[in-house]
Amino acid sequence: RLMAQADVVVENFSAGVADRLGIGFEAARAQRGDIVYCAISGYGQTGPMARRPAYDHVVQAASGVTMLTGTAESVPNRIGPPIFDYLAGMYGAFAVVAALRERDRTGEAQMVDVGMLDAGLVAMASTMSTIANSGIEPTAKGNTAASGAPASGIFATADGLLSMTANQEAQLLRLCQVLGLQDTLRDPRFDSAEARSANAVAFRAELTRALRTDSAQAWEERLSAAHVPATRVRTVKEAMADPHVQERAVMQTLHDPRSGRDMQVPTIGFRWNRRSLGPDAPPPRLGEHTDETLAALGLDANGIAELRDEGVI
After folding, report:
1. What are the backbone dihedrals phi and psi of residue 113, each rounded to the nearest 5 degrees, phi first?
2. How many CA atoms lie within 13 Å of 282's alpha carbon, on the beta-carbon side?
3. Are 282 and 254 in contact (CB under 8 A)?
4. SS3 for 213-258, per residue?
5. In the chain, what are the domain boundaries?
6. Residues 251, 265: Cα–Cα separation, whole Å
7. If you classify domain 2-134 with CATH, what class do you get?
8. pLDDT of 204-262, one tens digit each?
9. CATH superfamily, with its number, for domain 152-233
10. Which of 77, 118, 196, 303 is geometrically suited to a Cys-Cys bond with 299, CB 3.0 to 4.6 A?
11. Interaxial angle between packed helices 116-123 and 83-106, expressed in degrees from 0 to 180 and rounded to the nearest 10
12. CB atoms within 10 A of CB 141
């Protein structure tokens, strides 16, 4: 009954489970001929790995990203948060919106198949393109920028750590001016991009020597003012408390009437018409709206009670 009235169905089972339960795409399309059906799984609905169970950190390892995270000596390393879970959800949301437009255009049902592994690999598009088209396999570079620029990475200062990147020659000149290293660029070891790359360790040592004369916060402010990308390395807690993040309203307060408590939750990560958007109520508890939903589908109290007695709900 629910599928017959739904515009979109989203499921997160391993491949084949929804069909076995009688709620797969074909079953949904039989209930509503123009339904949008989105299946999100670890490895997608087809292929040799399709029916495998998956968690984010397992799929990270399958994708190769753990071999690019950290240094050549420290790999493999999992990316901290379950980023592939989030990527799959974002791709799913984007695909559902596109599928709704296609459904409206054609009047036909749409099947969206999102695999966490696919999503993670596509998010590494530059890496995959490099391997496929040049034969060069990128390796873990620690905190150095993907460009490999010697003036990039995380550096020690007098107080804390600083992340900065000067990929462009103009950025490098401004960086050295702020650090007082103009004469360093006259050294034959550092007077060209090729020379600096060949002597990257020595060049980084010169940068660190200058950066150790002041705090990470001070360098962040000076370099940013000079249009050199730089920031003090923060913890997540410090980032959440940062005035910029506060002004952007990345977090919001929700009141939970069941517990009487307020809770802080993230917004959706972008602003709409200059406003930050997010949920307007806490997430429901498991089964909280079961009776309400079934009643809306036409079941009376006796029918709902029967389902509960049978262990269906």
Report:
1. -120, 105
2. 16
3. yes
4. CCEHHHHHHHHHHCCCCEEECCCHHHHHHCHHHHHHCCEEEEEECC
5. 2-134, 152-233, 241-276, 285-313
6. 6
7. alpha beta
8. 999 999 999 999 999 999 999 999 999 999 999 999 999 999 999 999 999 998 889 99
9. formyl-coa transferase, domain 3 (3.30.1540.10)
10. 303
11. 100
12. 16
Closest CA to 37 of 16, 13, 7: 7
Q: List, in sequence order, every residue forming a beta bridge with 231; answer none if it has no partner.
A: 163
Residue bearing tokens 């006796």 = 302
Q: What token pair was written down for 24? A: 């797969």
Chain segment 83-134, per-residue pLDDT in tens? 999 999 999 999 999 999 999 999 999 999 999 999 999 999 999 999 999 9
**DSSP codes joined into one string, 72-138:** TTT-----SS-HHHHHHHHHHHHHHHHHHHHHHHH---EEEEEEHHHHHHHHTHHHHHHHHHH----
Cβ distance 216 to 233 under 8 Å? yes
